[in-house]
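Example 302.
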Amino acid sequence: MVRYDGLILERVLDLNNEGYTIEQIAEVCHIPVASVCMELRRVRDRQPFRLTRPPRSIKRWHPEDFTLESTTVWSFPKRGNWATHKGDYRGNWSPYIPRNIILRYTTEGETVLDCFVGSGTTLIETKLLRRKGIGIDINSQAICLAKERADFRFNDEFHPAIFEGEAQNLPQQIAHQSVDLICTHPPYTNIIQYSNDKTGDLSCCDIPSFLVEMNRVAQECLRVLKSKKHCVFMIGDTRHEKHMVPLGFMTLEVFLRNGFVLKEVIIKKQHNCQSTAFWYPKSIYHNFLLIGHEYIFVLRKP
Ligand SMILES: C[S@@+](CC[C@H](N)C(=O)[O-])C[C@H]1O[C@@H](n2cnc3c(N)ncnc32)[C@H](O)[C@@H]1O
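Predicted structure in complex with S-adenosylmethionine:
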């Protein structure tokens, strides 16, 4: 019977995150293939629950019904309202998304950056899941909201660092090759504008200038990410004069051109889209389909 301890388990996870096959991991760690599979399944399904009672204002610290996604199609009809999560920031993402990404691509204590942090959904999750969170947003209102939402008494040693700044020019506090995962959600050009034409705000850009700025974001992501680690972002497409503009793939291409390698393309189904009532009659009249999905691209730094 092979005995393996926490150190080997950590090595298994690291190698798995670096893209090694199960067989290669078994060989490197000198353990059976079946043990590698069993350990990965056990760890991926594990949630670092600490069963302290939440204050009255919070129903629960963790979702009751969570299982890690295992396919390339994700759908979360209920957004999720555990801990301090709220869906009131425009264009926010469901906490099930960063939870899945963080659990799959990091281990406890690792550093996760969201460089378009908005209301702080990712940082609530990093704190709950005992990762070191860093959040950046160009808009001061978002920064206030993210700070407020991450300010709860639970896993205090994992309180995130939150800075006002630009994803194209990350604050100097984030050192080269210091981040284990980038998990982020940029604006989809100017579909939702988060400021009144603030310089550098990507939500005020048209498509060509958005892609130029995202090129700088990709370079910054490459700079701060450790090698072999993941950069994951969610983005949607748009329409121009009845035709589809594949903004998601255009942005992906920018990241690939900078040297990232594509690991997964995930289709995320859209729910409760506020603009549907407005667009539905137009979609009938002009005979086009309403966009019902977004992409989550999982990239690796080679
Ligand atoms: C889609 S929202 C992120 C929402 C977030 N996932 C949440 O759940 O609240 C995009 C955010 O990017 C911010 N933003 C726009 N341009 C930026 C830039 N150049 N650098 C950093 N943040 C920027 C906007 O202020 C907005 O908060």
